[in-house]
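# nightly structure sweep
# worker-07 picked up a monomer target from the shared queue
# config: single-sequence mode, recycle default, output format = structure tokens
# input follows
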Amino acid sequence: MIHQYSPERIAARMEIQDAVYRWARGVDRRDWDSLYDVFHPDATDRHGIYDGPIDGLICWLKERHKGISQCMHFIGNVFIEFTGEKTALCESCVIGYHVYGDAPFDVKAAILGEKMASERGDIVTMVIGRYVDEFEQRNGRWKVARRNTIFEHMEAEVEGDGPKLNPKWLIQSRDANDMIMQKRREWGLAK
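# output follows
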């Protein structure tokens, strides 16, 4: 067995952690194609009301996120335990922030319930949970084979009349126009 902190295992840990972070960026920037590089093609995800293969998850996310104007996944503790030569269990803490603006009623109701979905104005949610990922190394790459999204807490409120972002600031964009995506293209890291 390879030592948990051998150079090979340290490289594997970095690749696994990077996959968890790439998931967050892909969802937050609506870069759906990038999510395929996080999961093996036959991967599955139990993600709240979605439970199934990765292709279906990405289709579900595309539809769900059409009306979400802001989204940020903050990844906290990432704890990796190797379960075999080419398998690992990874637990990642996550805080998800979403602003449901123009999302269709049925999308909001499925997540927030009918009463909250009926509210006028943007609905801000914060969800606290964990990803429990089973990683496998195949063809030299560590990717998620199975994900279980564990939910621990959720808050939702209608956005009030409090302070707003100054339009002169650099403001996030949930697409290729976001500053990080522009800089990645500028530096040749993306097309």
